[in-house]
């Protein structure tokens, strides 16, 4: 026969599902209780989010597109009887930046050296971060406690690690020539500058709002 406590615990064992949106994109959230009113497990499946803009780096002008997508799971710990919780998890991080350098007055300036469009036909790059990214944060809400509709808010950081910067160039210089070697030496210096510029986003800010229904 159920006691009052076990009946309450049994009522907390449902699964909640709903929609979420935030700095990791928009998608589907699923939550269930591991220890009712104490520990829940949440999975987030986000669709890609993208934004295009122009920016400058050490004399180069870029047109770039930022792609944001992260899929993962977190455990939420409720240290008090309220719905305040601490969260920790691991995400598959597909955040990246694709960029193409724009010639200014028909030329590119790389590491202080100017190249005409005839010498450097195109210059592009891609920035990626570590795939497995841990998450730490806090929030309010527990969609597993009672049946019905629940509002959840989470905020924290995703550790992306150091950026990986790949740069691709097409040039009229023949491979092995002094001009070819000098160009790629300047490109390597530019790559290092871009990587240093991106060091400030090792920690990616996370803010998520979700609406879940517990069955």
Q: Please tell me the total number of domains.
A: 1
Structural class: mainly beta
Architecture, CATH level 2? Beta Barrel
Q: How much helical structure, as a percent, in the residues?
A: 10-25%
- Report the portion of residues in β strands: over 45%
pLDDT below 50 for ≥5 consecutive residues: which ranges?
A: 1-5
Biggest beta sheet summary:
8 strands, antiparallel, barrel
CATH class category: Mainly Beta
Total beta strand runs:
15
- SSE run: HEEEEEEEEEEEEEEHE
| Mean pLDDT, all residues | 90
Radius of gyration: 24 Å
Strand order of the largest sheet: 1-2-3-6-7-12-13-15
State the helix count.
2
- Outline, from the CA principal axes? elongated
Give the secondary structure arrangement, pairings included.
Layout: H1 4-11, E1 15-22, E2 25-35, E3 39-47, E4 49-57, E5 60-68, E6 70-77, E7 84-93, E8 96-102, E9 107-110, E10 113-116, E11 120-128, E12 132-140, E13 148-159, E14 164-171, H2 178-197, E15 203-214
Antiparallel strand pairs: 1-2, 1-15, 2-3, 3-6, 4-5, 5-8, 6-7, 7-12, 8-11, 9-10, 11-14, 12-13, 13-15
What are its keywords?
215 residues; Porin; eight-stranded antiparallel β-barrel; 2 helices; elongated; disordered N terminus
3D architecture notes:
- This protein is mainly beta and 215 residues long.
- It has a single domain (4-214), classed as Beta Barrel (Porin).
- 13% of the residues lie in helices and 60% in strands.
- Strands 1-2-3-6-7-12-13-15 form an 8-stranded antiparallel beta barrel. Strands 4-5-8-11-14 form a 5-stranded antiparallel β-sheet, covered by helices on one side. A two-stranded antiparallel sheet has the order 9-10.
- Strand 2 (25-35) and strand 3 form a beta hairpin.
- The longest helix is centred in the last third of the chain and has 20 residues, at 178-197.
- The radius of gyration is 24 Å and the shape is elongated.
- Residues 1-5 have low confidence and may be disordered.
């Amino acid at each position: 026969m159920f006691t009052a406590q076990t009946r309450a615990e049994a009522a907390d064992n449902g699964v909640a599902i709903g929609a979420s949106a935030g700095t990791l994109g928009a998608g589907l959230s699923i939550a269930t209780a591991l220890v009712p009113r104490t520990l829940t497990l949440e999975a987030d499946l986000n669709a890609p989010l993208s934004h295009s803009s122009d920016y400058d780096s050490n004399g180069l002008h870029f047109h770039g597109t930022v792609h944001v997508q992260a899929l993962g799971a977190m455990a939420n710990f409720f240290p008090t009887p309220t719905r305040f919780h601490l969260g920790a998890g691991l995400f598959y991080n597909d955040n990246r930046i694709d960029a193409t350098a724009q010639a200014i007055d028909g030329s590119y300036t790389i590491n202080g050296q100017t190249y005409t469009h005839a010498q450097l036909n195109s210059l592009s790059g891609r920035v990626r971060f570590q795939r497995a990214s841990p998450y730490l944060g806090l929030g309010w809400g527990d969609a597993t406690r009672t049946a019905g509709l629940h509002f959840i808010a989470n905020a924290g950081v995703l550790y992306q690690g150091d950026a990986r910067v790949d740069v691709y160039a097409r040039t009229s210089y023949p491979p092995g020539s002094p001009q070819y070697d000098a160009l790629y030496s300047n490109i390597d210096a530019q790559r290092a500058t871009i990587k240093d510029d991106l060091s400030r986003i090792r920690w990616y800010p996370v803010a998520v709002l979700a609406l879940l229904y517990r069955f």
